[in-house]
Design a protein that fits this description.
Blueprint (H helix, E strand, L loop, with lengths): L1 H23 L4 E2 L2 E5 L15 E7 L8 E3 L5 E9 L12 E9 L6 E5 L4 E4 L1 E12 L4 E7 L5 E8 L3 E9 L16 E10 L10 E13 L1 H4 L11
Antiparallel strand pairs: 1-2, 2-3, 3-14, 4-7, 5-6, 6-14, 7-13, 8-13, 9-12, 9-14, 10-11, 10-13
Length: 238
């Protein structure tokens, strides 16, 4: 009996692992974003039957040359380019490039830089958090995520101070105060990712350019309603 139970456990574990590897390959998609993990962080509430957490790959920055960086002209100038590299834990043949941003300061003041993609990224479903790999250089500058909520209002969610060295995966949780849905309408749920903003600490402007790098932006999203829509339902978009 123990032998049979052990074999059954090995079989079930193998099937689950195979499913996760297959999904990581990007075969499953929701809209324009591939689903890279069907068991997002194993953080779903097991007592809630109407939650289906998935991890979506929002941007791997392989086309980072399409991004732009802007700082008010009175404070300096900024540029964004694609650079070869990646965190060692996620490096692969499909993930060889990162987004690099360089800022020259004209004066020491309370300034900021905005870092934006070529087009906003609409993330369907209810986003629980956003994760992105960022290189820090031990500065106290503050990085934030810029979003547009369900009602098209711009929101800034503060992340971390860049007081680390090398790559770190930064997580920004989406609070309940960010409206992502109207409970009467399901097909338009979600937020729109607009980019990043870095607010500079004047005391940490040391007379040299500021560099920062980004890679592999993902979102943990509840897709229960999106995956269970009635196929013959009408869409209110006319």
């Amino acid at each position: 009996m123990r032998l049979v139970s052990g074999l059954l456990l090995v079989f079930v574990t193998g099937v689950m692992f195979a499913q996760q590897v297959e999904n990581t390959g990007g075969n499953l998609r929701l809209g324009e974003f591939p689903i890279i993990n069907t068991n997002a962080g194993e953080s779903a509430d097991r007592t809630v039957a109407t939650e289906l957490l998935q991890t979506l790959l929002v941007d791997d920055f392989e086309a980072a040359g399409e991004w732009a960086a802007f700082i008010p002209r009175d404070y300096g100038y900024a540029s964004a380019i694609r650079r070869e590299g990646s965190p060692s834990v996620i490096k692969s043949d499909k993930n060889k490039y990162v987004l690099g941003v360089k800022v020259y300061f004209m004066k020491r003041d309370w300034s900021w830089v905005s870092i934006t993609p070529a087009k906003p990224a609409k993330i369907r479903g209810i986003t629980k958090n956003l994760k992105v790999w960022v290189v820090g250089r031990n500065y106290r500058h503050v990085i934030s995520v810029v979003l547009r909520d369900y009602l098209d209002r711009i929101k800034y969610l503060r992340g971390d101070r860049l007081i680390w060295v090398g790559w770190k995966q930064m997580t920004v949780n989406i609070p309940d105060t960010i409206e992502q849905e109207n409970y009467k309408v399901s097909e338009e749920r979600g937020i729109t990712f607009l980019g990043f903003r870095i607010d500079f600490e004047p005391d940490d402007m040391i007379g040299r350019p500021f560099y920062v790098y980004f890679d592999y932006l993902t979102a943990d999203v509840d897709l229960y309603s999106e995956m269970n829509l009635n196929a013959d339902d009408m869409i209110d978009n006319w």
